[in-house]
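Researcher: I'd like a structural prediction for the single chain below. Treat it as a standalone chain; there are no partners to consider.
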Amino acid sequence: MPISLDLTGRVALVTGGGSGLGRAAAERLAAAGATVVVAGRREDVLRQAAAAVDGDWIACDVADTASVRTLFETLAARHARLDILINAAGLNVRNAALDVAEPEWDLVNDVNAKGTFFCCQAAARLMKANGHGKIVNIGSMASEIGIPNASVYCASKGAVRQITMALAAEWAPYGIRVNAIMPGWFRTELTERLFADEAWRARVLARIPLGRPGQPSEVADLALFLASPLSDYLTGETIRLDGGALAW
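Model: Treating it as a single chain, here is the predicted structure.
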C-alpha cells in the first residue's frame, strides 16, 4: 500500500457504519490502518461491524442532537482524538409530493441534513484542536436531479451538498477539509427493493453509460482517497460517482 494511503494512527468515525455504504467505508479505512469507530442505531449490527474491522462502536441516533453530543463525548473519552469523519447515516421515505406529511419531512431531513450538520460540527470541534481533519459526507445524485416520489430526499441531499461547501469554506483555516461523495444508483440494503423490480432496474441501467449499478466498495475507495493525504488540496467538492449517469 502506498504510504500516502496509510492511515495508521488515525481515528475515524463512520456514522451509519453498521451496514451498506457506511460499513464498506469502515472496512476500507480499517484496512488502511485507521482505528475505526462505527455509529448507528442498531446495536446488534454495530457490534458485528465493529468486530469485522477490529474497531469500536457507539450507539447514536444522529437525528437527536443530545445523542450526537454523547457520541462525540464518548469517542473523545475512549480515543482522545478524531481525524476522519464519514457521514454515511441516511434514509429515504418514498412518497408522492402531494401526499408528503410533515412527519415524513422531519424524519428524512432530521437524519440526512440536521444529522450531517451536527455531526460535522461536533467533529470539527475535536479536529480544530489538532489542526487537521477530513470530513466526508455521503450525498446523492438526488441533490442535482429531480426524482419522482423522492422530493423530501432530494431536498435533504441538496442540503448536504450546500453544508459541505459552506463548512469547507469556513473551516479551511483550521486545516479541516470537507468534501462529499455523490453516489448514483447503488445496490444496497436501502435500494434492494427497487432493484428487485425488473422494469425499474432496466430503466435505470439504460441511463448509466457504464451499464451497471455501483458497488459499496466503490464508494469506500473514494472515501479512502478523501480521507487520505492524497486529497489535501481538495475541499468543498461534491464528487459524482454514478457510472456516467449525469454525463449525458
